[in-house]
Amino acid sequence: MAFTADQVENLAHNQTCGHLHLFTCPNRGDGEHRDAYGDTGALVATVRGWICPFCDYTQDWAHHGMLAGKVPNPFPLPGLSHQRSK
């Protein structure tokens, strides 16, 4: 097993949250991949590892922080690129 069920939940959240760079298939430029799950060739987390829904590519690793929990949005307010301290 590549990932635990808890890790899959964390990865799925982090993959689709909109503020992190997505894990994508290296074959995504072949013209057969589509824009699903947030980007062309975005990978889907499973207990067997990342899978590409458009080809047979798999990947069995992810960054530790993405496995460990749901990464908070560093810019939680709409329209702001950063918060300034006073």
Report on this model:
This protein is of the alpha+beta class and 86 residues long. It has helices at residues 5-16, 64-68, and strands spanning 35-36, 39-40, 44-46, 49-51, 58-59. The strands form 2 sheets. A 3-stranded antiparallel beta sheet has the order 3-4-5. Strands 1-2 form a two-stranded antiparallel sheet. It is flat and about 35 Å long.
Short description:
The protein has 86 residues and is α+β, with helices and mostly antiparallel strands.
Which key phrases capture this entry?
single chain, 86 residues, alpha+beta, three-stranded antiparallel β-sheet, 5 strands, 14% strand, flat
Provide a count of the helices. Answer: 2
Class computed from helices, strands and strand pairing: alpha+beta
Content of β-strand: 5-15%
Mean pLDDT over all positions: 88
**Cα separation of the termini:** 48 Å
Topology, element by element:
Blueprint: H1 5-16, E1 35-36, E2 39-40, E3 44-46, E4 49-51, E5 58-59, H2 64-68
Antiparallel strand pairs: 1-2, 3-4, 4-5
